[in-house]
Amino acid sequence: MVKIQVHPQGTRVRVRQGRLPLDPALEGRPGTVVHLLKGGGDRYGVQLDGESRISVLAEDELEALGPDSTP
Predict the structure, then answer these.
(1) How far apart are the C-alpha atoms of 22 and 3, rounded to whole Å?
(2) pLDDT digits (tens, 9 = 90+) for 16-71
(3) Cα dihedral: 29, 34, 40, 41 (round 10)
(4) What is the set of domains in the chain, with CATH numbers?
(5) What is the pTM of this model?
(6) DSSP character for 46?
(7) What burial letters (b/e) apply to 7-24, b meaning 16+ CB within 10 Å?
């Protein structure tokens, strides 16, 4: 079975509540997918707008934004 990446690198996303507990300060924040983490399920490295560090988030914690949503 081939797993299709729902949010490819470069996709603009917004953080939302998923199945697992989430830091409330992250919810609603926009960012950009920078990579898919291998071997850890459906987890993504996301650089949130205004931050230099990469946050690790699950697929169900990300909502794709439209193409006109620039940082």
Answers:
(1) 25
(2) 999 888 889 999 999 999 998 877 668 999 999 999 999 999 999 999 997 666 55
(3) 70
(4) 12-64 (2.30.30)
(5) 0.83
(6) E
(7) beeebbbbbeeeeeeeee
For 65, phi and psi rounded to 5 degrees? -100, 165
- Of 38, 40, 47, nearest in space to 15 by CA: 47
Among 28, 29, 62, smallest CA distance to 45 is for 62
How many residues are given for the chain?
71
CA separation, residue 14 to residues 1, 5, 11, 28 (Å): 28, 17, 10, 6
